[in-house]
Fold RING-type E3 ubiquitin transferase.
Amino acid sequence: MKTITIVYEQFRQWIEDKASNSSSGVSFIEFNPSEVDDSVPKDQNHCLGRGGYGIVYKAKLRNETVAVKILNESSRQGEREFKQEIAILKRIRHQNLITLRGACSEKFALMYELLPNGTLEDRLINEKQRESFSWEERVRVATSICTALVFLHNAKPNPIAHGDLKPGNILFDDENICKLSDFGISRLLQQTNDTGTPNHITEVPKGSGPYMDPEFKNTGKLTPQSDVFALGIILLQLVTGQSATGLRKHIVDKLEGKKLEKMHTRKQKMILEKLKILDAQLKLDDTSIQDAVKMVSLGLRCSNSERKRRPSLEIEVWPEIESMNKSECLHGSDEVD
């Protein structure tokens, strides 16, 4: 426990330094409309994806291959989301956040670094991709998401809540480093004297189905803990490989109060497999089984419907996930040797 505390304190200092210096050296280009028209091919071969804001195309602008997101005229999103994304991504950089290269205000177009290796959703839903999605990689993804969220929640001068964390918004670059994307409904949070928790209040809460914080949905108050809720569902998906819809209830009902953490490894594995909680594509040894149980426990705690009962991302969740990541890295190097 002492080691985890030391690691956490070191990480906290690093995050604070990164958050306060995150805008240094940030370059941002304002593209003109003709550049967008000339560079973006409007055909299916260059279409990378579609979302609530619009269509994402692969294009070449100023000798760099980028991803260009252009507002769809029929979208319910628009100028507000466009400006919000720029306001947030223009001033920060982090290895686990997508980089915004620039924008075109006249076209409501956003230009990002190209992340060519798909989404976390692809790796969880596509049977073939899930088969090759190892436990070590899943732990690394969980670590990267946690690191990015801690960075956002400690951003200066205002903490940032992503607000739409889900596998479809987690992309992979050419080195398989995952990055959070889609900050259109993210918010800069304000400190309050009444609760001490930074928040943003809205009359129209927005989010994505099973990843949306129930308290945010009911009260309109977005907090860092709203991202923790979504993280919890994703952690459960990384272990189970299952759809997010009804997943938490499904696992709670299956376990029927069983305290997996207190069981020996063989029984843990037997129960996880028998109850079909563990993704059948995963072949785990004893150490990894123990980590899978920890991840299920963290996922259930993070996705508690009551915000005050969710664990602290920095103090409880990140150190535990980082400990798993280091364990998997050491374990992997032992296997290579």
